[in-house]
Each structure stands twice: as structure tokens, then as C-alpha cells.
Amino acid sequence: MRFNRSIALALALAASSPLAIAAEGHGHAHHGGSTIGQPGTAAEASRTVEVTLNDMYFEPESIAVKAGETVRFVVKNEGALLHEFNIGTAAMHEKHQSRMQLMMDHGMLTPTGINHEMANMDHSSMPGMEGLGHQEPNSVLVAPGETSEMVWTFSGDAQLEFACNVPGHYAAGMAGEIRLD
Amino acid sequence: MLLSCIKKAAPVLASLWSLGALAGTYNLVIDEQPLEIDGKAKNAMTLNGGVPGPTLRFREGEDVTINVTNNLDVDSSIHWHGLLLPYTQDGVPGISFPGIKPGETFTYRFPIVQAGTYWYHSHSGFQEQEGVYGSIVIEPAKREPYRYDREYVVMLSDWSAETGDQIFSNLKGQSDYYNYSQQTLGGFFKDASQDGFAATLRDRLDWGSMRMMPTDIADVSGYSFLVNGKSTDDNWTGLFQPGERVRLRFINASAMTYFDVRIPGLKMTVIQADGNNVQPVGVDEFRIAVAETYDVIVQPKEDRAFSILAESIDRSGFARGTLAPREGMKLALPELRERPLLTMSDMSMASMGGMDHGSMDHSAMNHAAMAPSQSQTVDHAAMGHSQPQPQAMDHAAMGHTQPQPQAMDHAAMGHTQPQPQAMDHAAMGHTQPQPQAMDHAAMGHTQPQPQAMDHAAMGHAPAQPQAMDHAAMGHSSMAAMTDTGGDYAPGSGLTPTAANGGKFLVYGDLKAMTPYADYRAPDREIELRLTGNMERYFWSINGIKFSDAEPVRLTYGERVRIKFVNDTMMMHPMHLHGMWMQLDKGNGRFNPLKHVVNVAPNTTLTVDVPVDAIGEWAFHCHLMYHMASGMFRKIVVEPPAAQAAQM
After folding, report:
1. Which domain of life, per UniProt (chain B) (predicted)?
2. ipTM of the predicted structure?
3. pTM for the whole structure
């Protein structure tokens, strides 16, 4: 089943970098004193939002949420290229982009997908590569044609964007606003 | 905001939109009038009274009607550069149509079947050099895939006080007429005292046999460089609000000038090349060949001015514009960088006219004494050193700081069998993603063993003592980042580097955003050697100039690989009309579609052409005076024989 396979990919990536969240300081998401929220479960979700990833834009382009609300995102990649759906502040996205660039440089990611062999290698002993992987709970990487999902509980504390941090994509405009209703 | 920009930038005349069907009518008038730019006054050729002409804004799916009136006293024409259209509308006198006589109006009619940034220019005489050029922006029928708040056309050009005819006759009479940086007799004795008389004499004789000089970077100097028709003093300005994304549509409308483009303080994300969307790639600087286009997005966040700097590659000047939050802001121009010198690497064996290099005594060459920038440029592979390197050669002193592309085949790397003792990732210093920061010397490549190094066959196969199996590794993206991706001959004096030490765009970075559906092996290959003689100012293809050449015949539906081999010491921006060239830098179905490809000296570049447009098309070097002297072919695309027989 396609859906499960992309989840499995994310987990496989995660296995190589158990320290990612702590090292990065987001995930549980304290950023500048405010929190971006936390992962939720599908059972808690009050609604489902379908998000389409295209080359080089999101549909919809902005999403409205309420403070405390838990939303299930079903994220489908209809493009020809690898894309990400990541919830965070602009500063978090910027930081994540440089990590994604490193992963691309090291062949863990390609423009169209995830290189399992490279991604499963233990890069953690290399300086600057500690915790390199893609396990952040506020993000899913979705290969072309695949669908993945993410459940998120919004705190309402931070100004958030959803973004694709695959190298070049955010700069080309692949980001959208999360509005607090 | 975007709308108001478009309105301001588009003085499109008499746009007539019928209800329902998308159709527009546009009028262009070619005329002559006195114009002074950058203190250089002459009778310029204008379009609707200006240089450049108006930006034509079309929409994909529109049927356009364009009336072009020629008020000159000579024939004229307009060619729609990069547009796919019936060949009779392509605007090349003698191939697509007879041209436009003085006082007459020619009406072009064609459907717009593509989107992106293009341009138009006269294809008659040297009228393009005189001012007959303008930009085309085509809005896509579907959603624009990128998001930006404003956009501007940034049209670069070279402006001379002389007419094109004067320049051409100067070049024909004395090819080094514009080479203000010639090496002098004094320089000869200086080199001779450093390198020894015999070595210097031999070096000068080599250049002489090429009819070239190391300073032959550009044929013509004395230009002023313009941004949208404005000199650096006039400072074309594009406004922004801090934080906005701004799309810049760079078009090189120069007759002869390549530029290295940067905006100090801003990363540029390249999103389109030659009108076709590419996977966005962030760069600090890029080189734009004559007639190419590149679209970039920048996001200036500070409330200050940023200079758009397009530095001519012979470093004779800048085209400069400014991005600013308010009108009237400008920064001081930086110093011009050092003028590059061509090296032996830029000299192909074929072009040396049968020189007996086998008799050259390489062991006498004092590589260590060569300037660092030149010593690392010596391309042993091209020089055909089949013999092991002389022990006396001090490779360490040669300054091999830049890995030779053929030396490190990262593209084939796969990390399947990491060799811990050889591959010291910990020492790779991967903290900075900049490729330039990668210290290969620290990668565990101890010192190369000169006597064991076969430069001619540098594939790092099992013979290498380091035990590092590069052949089995797979850092595909690293290859493009750590070298020029084969865009230039290894060690070429023309190899660009970013002014801030950051990322310089290479052709391998250009990957189509949408994979090509019908990607397959070519049906056949045609080799085209780019040839010429600088001193006689004679440029040709396969040694034959246009006036003496048969057309190249292609069959509709076939897929033809064109292999360009540059036997000259100059770069040639090769332009195919009417059909795309899929630039092959190993990106397969993501090979980008281009209308101009730059072929550097002593390199081979391949493109695949899906032959999908019947008719007669022009195919030429877009350096105006190379085209004029014969580096040009007519391409005839015929229906398949079976089909033709039935007709």
C-alpha cells in the first residue's frame, strides 16, 4: 500500500538519527519562547485537510486553524519531484533548509525521492552531520505519486508557515501561511 | 502589486482583445534616430522610439498578430528568439521569408504555445547591435508554478559608439583591433626571465600557431554595458518592499558580450533557463552567454539598495542596475575582477594545425614556476601524456587545488563499500555546504604519487594507491558542485568562480522541472566542429562557412544528437531556431530544454534535438560577428520519406 510505504520511509530515515529532535530543539517545538504545537493522533483530530504538493506550489496556498485544534493532514504529491510538508516558523524552515541541502549533497535525498541506501548509512559520526535524517514530527517527505499524513495540534502561540524545504523550493515560493482564526 | 508592475512595464500598443478567443494585435516600428547613451551618441536603430523595444506580454494559447513596420532605408526583420512557431513566421531573411523592405509592414501571425521569458531582435545585418531588440514575457495558461510579489525584465546589452559595420570591418581588417590587453615585447622578456627563453618562445609560438592570444576573451571591446537600455550611471532601478520575493528575468541581448551576474548580499534562486522552468537552484553567481535567458527569484529583506552586477567576462566593465526600496538609491561599483587569460587547456589539439606536440619536451617545462592560476590549469589529459609523468614534475607545486573533473568521478560514487582507512569523512569538514569549502586534500587522499598518476586515464580505477574506490561511490550531486561539470576544459582560464567564493551555477545544475515524456536514445548523432581563424576573422562549422555550406537535413520525428566540438579558443553560444535542444549534462529525462547552449573552448557538448518542426530554420553562433563571418547553417526539416512519397 502506497500510503504505508512512505511512512515507512520516514521511519527508516528516522532510525539513523535518534537525536534529531533534541539537537534541533524543535519538534516539541519551543521556538523563541512560543510553541508551534505538537503531534496529535488521528482520533483527536476534529477535521481532515487535504494538501496537494505540486511542482512548485501547494494547494491550498493557505490554511486556517484554531488555537488548540488538532488537524489531520492528508498530503498527496502530484508533482514529478520530491516535496515536503513541514509546519514551523520561518526561522525553523530556514534552519531545516540547510539540513535538507546537506542531505541532498550527501545523496540521501535526490530531486525525485529518498535514497534508501544512503539514508540508512550512519552519518552521525561526521562533524556537521550529527542527527542528519528526516524524523521531525512536524514534517513529512512525500515522494512523487505518494500520499502521507500528519496529525498536528496547534498551540496558537507562534506565527506559522507550512513549507517545502527541499533545496530551492521554499525560495521559489513553495510555502503557505497558517492563519489563526 | 504585481499587476501594477506589469502595467507599468508593458507599454504594449494597441492591444486588441477579442471576446472569448485569446488574440492580440501588437505594432512595432523600426526606425532610426539620434540617441546618446553613456556619452556615446550615434544614430541608433530604435523600436517604437526606444532602445530596447517594448516588452511584449503574451499569454500561452493566444493567437498573436504583430505588425512590424520598417522605417529604415535598408531591409529589416524581427526574429522571435526561442518561440516555437511556423517557420515562415520566424523572421530570418533568406530562410523564413524575404525580409521587410524599407517603408513596408510585415504582419506576423502565430499561436503562442509556450510560456516564459524570451526576446526578439532584428535578424538583418548588424541591426541588433544598433538597438533593434526587446523582451517577451509569456504568462502560462495554467497556474504560474512559482510565487513572487513583483517581477522585472533585466535586459543586458552592449552598446558601441561605432556601427556594427564599422566594428565588423575593423575585425576583418585586424582581428586584434579591440584587444587592448595584448601581451607586449616587454612582457615576453619578463616571462623569458622567469620561465627561460626557450619555454617562453615556444609558448608564444603555440599561441601564434592558433592565431590566438591568451587575452582573446572577447573579440570586441570599448562597449558600454546596459541594463534595460540604461548605463551604469543612469542606473536602472527596480523597486521592492523588504521581504518581498522579486522575480528577475535576465536576458542577454548583447551582440558579443558574456556576463557574470551577481547581486551581492542576495542569494539568487534560478527558476527558469531559456524560458523553460527548472528545478529551483540557489546560486551566488551565474554566467549568461549571449542570447541566453535566466529567471531568478530573490528576496531582499533589508531596507537598503542592492546592486545587480553583470560583469563582462573580459572584465572591461559592468552592466549595473539596482534593486531598492526607493528611487534614487545606488551603491558604489566594486572593482572589476582580474581579466582572465586563456591557457593551454583552452587550446584543442585539432585546432593547433598539426603542431607536433609529441616533440615538446615537457620535462623541461617549469610547471612549478607558472603562476598558480595557470599551473592548475594545465590539462594533462588533453595534452596526451601517455607516458608516466616525469619524476621531476612537482605536482604539489602545481596547485591542483581544484579537483580535475575527470580525476574525481563522484558521479559514479555509491558508498556501497566505504573504505574507512581511505575515506575520512570526519575530516571532510562538511559543516559548510559550499563545495568550494570542501578540502579534498583532507579527504584522505594523501599526497598523489606523481610517478603513479596517469593523468590521461584518471578514472581512479583500482590502480590508485589510496584504495579509495571512487568508481563505486555515488555522491551524484557533489560532482556538479566541486567542479565545472565539464562546462570548461579542465584548467581552462575561462572557468568562472563566484566573487564571494560561493556557488556558481553550472549547466549540470539546470534540471527541467517537468521530466521530458519522450526521453529516449537518439536515432543518430551529428558531429559539428566549431572552427575558425581568429586572425583572419573567419568563423565556420566543420571548416566551412555558411556561404559555401550545404544545409543540414533532418527528418521530422527523429531524435538527433548534436555533438559540438569546439576547436577554437573562443566560447560559442550556439542557437537553434524553431526546436529545442535538450542539453545533456547527464540529467536524463530532466535534461533542460534550451535555445542557446554555450560551448567552451576545447570542450565537447552534446544536445538532443527532438525534430518536431517541419521547415527551414537557422542555426548559428549568436556572437554577431561570428555569425556574420560564417558560423551559421541552414537546417531543413523534411517529412519522413514514406510520408513524402504519399504526398
Report:
1. Bacteria
2. 0.83
3. 0.79
